[in-house]
């Protein structure tokens, strides 16, 4: 009887797969043991075959057409001078939001981190220059410090993916949630998308496993709705979601100026920008297209536009996106109200994806890109917002991503930038910092977020000016 049911079950699945040209996923079914069959069925259950079938003609067999052509214009950007009345008022408004418990932090940590090549969730990567604290620990301390400074609870939502959910949760549990209350640290997982061969057939990673990867940081919006996180936020009275990526140790997870300005301008989706380091820097570019704010990926921006200049010689598209945003919860609710109608576009990337050869049954490690991966990007929500805000910040204060093992945007450069920021804060408090002949700081400096979240707080806390000798390591907590 049971066998019969299983048999009917697989027949039905076979038919469903055949109807969308994916019956090959069952090629090895007869060879699989019970556990492997279960694993395969589990994978198949996670795939939205209808959606994949719609995307194949436009995104796999073809390269998606560029959106309707509108001129690409520079965006409107707000600058708040240090010590300006506007900045002080924004900071006060943001602090009130935190105190009232209206702010949540959200880190996206579901990526694969292939470039860094670290064996474990990227958030566990040790990064702080003196104590080697992990990225997760730095964010946890910043959130704890913000709670202490402004009052109120800031729940922290951590988006993982199937690739790293279990080790991430274990890491937090083993470290006592770095002093945060466990009920205020909420994990949720994003969706997965199958990788497809150039012929539109989904790849098998093993005979009993579908080749799948996370659906991109744009998957956050869908996951917020489908996992019940939005309800949890509503229940807690959250109005503003402070969004950041797991790989930026300089980020301020709870930034009162940014939050306050978001609120006072009535923005639905706000972003921090820094001016680009060079014309072709590999960051998204903020722009206005067809009257809407958007981010154009560096790879999609024509080079002549990337190099274009204003009459005064300044760069025409000079505002890079560093993936720091504040979402109004109501805006995310509006976007995800009808999850199937959510309009974030899919982006296509050709990648090397190991797969099982259907003829020989052997697993092949390709030497060149062989598969299409499809991802959504979170900044594609920008043009869907009627009210947006872009606030300029100084790069040295807010951004140094850990993308690569060495060189540009690496652990090494992020540690150097953490030390450089600590040095700048200390110098603004009158502390003498030793420099090397090339101008780099000749010491290793670390200011725990528990000690100070910004230079103003450092000035308040620094009772006695430390003496820093060349090559010293200084840690403040
Ligand atoms: P990246 O685009 O740098 O990708 O992600 P990555 O997976 O971390 O690294 P590579 O490209 O494989 O080397 C930027 C941020 O978005 C998150 C990442 O965890 C990181 O914080 N992200 C990315 C997700 O949460 N989910 C995704 O599907 C993709």
Give the topology.
Elements: H1 2-19, H2 34-46, H3 49-60, E1 72-73, H4 85-99, E2 103-108, H5 135-150, E3 156-160, H6 165-174, E4 185-189, E5 192-194, E6 196-197, E7 204-206, E8 209-210, E9 212-214, H7 219-226, H8 229-236, E10 240-245, H9 256-264, E11 269-275, E12 284-289, E13 292-296, H10 303-306, E14 319-328, H11 329-336, E15 347-351, E16 355-356, E17 363-364, E18 371-375, E19 388-392, H12 395-398, H13 411-428, E20 444-447, H14 455-461, E21 473-476
Parallel strand pairs: 2-3, 2-10, 3-4, 11-19, 20-21
Antiparallel strand pairs: 1-12, 5-9, 6-18, 7-8, 10-14, 11-14, 12-13, 12-14, 15-18, 16-17
The chain binds uridine 5'-triphosphate.
The site of uridine 5'-triphosphate has 21 residues, from loops.
Commentary on this structure:
With 477 residues, the chain is an alpha/beta fold. The chain folds into three domains: 10-60, no CATH class; 72-402, Spore Coat Polysaccharide Biosynthesis Protein SpsA, Chain A (Alpha-Beta Complex); 404-477, no CATH class. Helix content is 31%, strand content 19%. It contains 14 helices and 21 strands. Strands 1, 2, 3, 4, 10, 11, 12, 13, 14 and 19 form a ten-stranded mixed sheet that branches. Strands 6-18-15 form a three-stranded antiparallel sheet, with no helix packed on it. Strand 12 and strand 13 form a beta hairpin. Helix 4 crosses helix 9, helix 7 crosses helix 11 and helix 13 (411-428) packs across helix 14 (455-461). The longest helix has 18 residues, at 2-19. 39% of the residues are buried. Mean pLDDT is 95; it is low at 1-6.
């Amino acid at each position: 009887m049971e066998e019969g049911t299983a048999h009917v079950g697989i027949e039905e699945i076979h038919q469903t797969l055949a109807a969308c040209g994916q019956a090959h996923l069952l090629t090895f079914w007869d060879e699989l043991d019970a556990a492997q069959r279960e694993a395969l069925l589990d994978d198949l259950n996670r795939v939205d075959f209808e959606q994949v079938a719609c995307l194949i003609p436009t995104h796999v067999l073809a390269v998606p057409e560029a959106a309707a052509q509108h001129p690409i214009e520079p965006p409107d950007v707000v600058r708040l001078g240090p010590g300006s009345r506007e900045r002080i008022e924004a900071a006060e408004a943001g602090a009130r939001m935190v105190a009232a418990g209206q702010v949540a932090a959200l880190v996206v940590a579901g990526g694969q981190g292939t470039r860094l090549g670290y064996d474990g969730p990227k958030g566990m990567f040790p990064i702080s220059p003196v104590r080697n604290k992990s990225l997760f620990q730095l964010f946890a301390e910043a959130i704890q410090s913000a709670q202490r400074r402004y009052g109120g609870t800031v729940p922290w939502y951590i988006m993982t993916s199937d690739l790293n959910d279990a080790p991430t949760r274990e890491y937090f549990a083993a470290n006592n949630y770095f002093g945060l209350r466990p009920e205020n640290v909420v994990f949720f997982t994003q969706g997965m998308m199958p990788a497809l061969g150039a012929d539109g057939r989904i790849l098998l990673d093993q005979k009993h496993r579908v080749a799948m990867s996370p659906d991109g940081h744009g998957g956050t919006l869908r996951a917020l709705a489908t996992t019940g996180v939005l309800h949890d936020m509503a229940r807690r009275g959250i109005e503003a979601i402070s969004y950041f990526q797991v790989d930026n140790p300089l980020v301020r997870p709870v930034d009162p100026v940014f939050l306050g300005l978001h609120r006072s301008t009535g923005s639905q989706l706000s972003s921090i920008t820094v001016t680009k380091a060079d014309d072709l820097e590999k960051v998204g570019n903020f722009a206005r297209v067809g009257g809407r704010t958007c981010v154009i990926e560096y790879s999609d921006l024509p080079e002549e536009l990337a190099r274009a200049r204003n009459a005064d010689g300044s760069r025409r598209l000079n505002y890079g996106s560093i993936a720091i945003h504040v979402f109004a919860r109501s805006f995310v609710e509006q976007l995800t109200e009808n999850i199937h109608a959510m309009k974030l576009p899919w982006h296509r990337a050709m990648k090397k994806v190991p797969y099982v050869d259907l003829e020989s049954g052997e697993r092949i490690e390709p030497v060149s890109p062989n598969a299409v991966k499809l991802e959504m990007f979170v900044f594609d929500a920008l043009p869907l917002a009627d009210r947006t805000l872009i606030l300029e910040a100084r790069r040295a204060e807010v951004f140094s991503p850990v993308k690569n093992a060495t060189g540009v945007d690496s652990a090494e450069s992020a540690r150097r930038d953490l030390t450089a920021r600590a040095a700048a804060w200390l110098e603004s408090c009158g502390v003498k910092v030793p420099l090397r002949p090339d101008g780099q700081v000749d010491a290793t400096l670390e200011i725990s977020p528990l000690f100070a979240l910004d230079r103003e707080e450092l000035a308040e806390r620094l009772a006695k000016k430390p003496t820093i000798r060349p090559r010293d390591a200084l840690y403040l907590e």
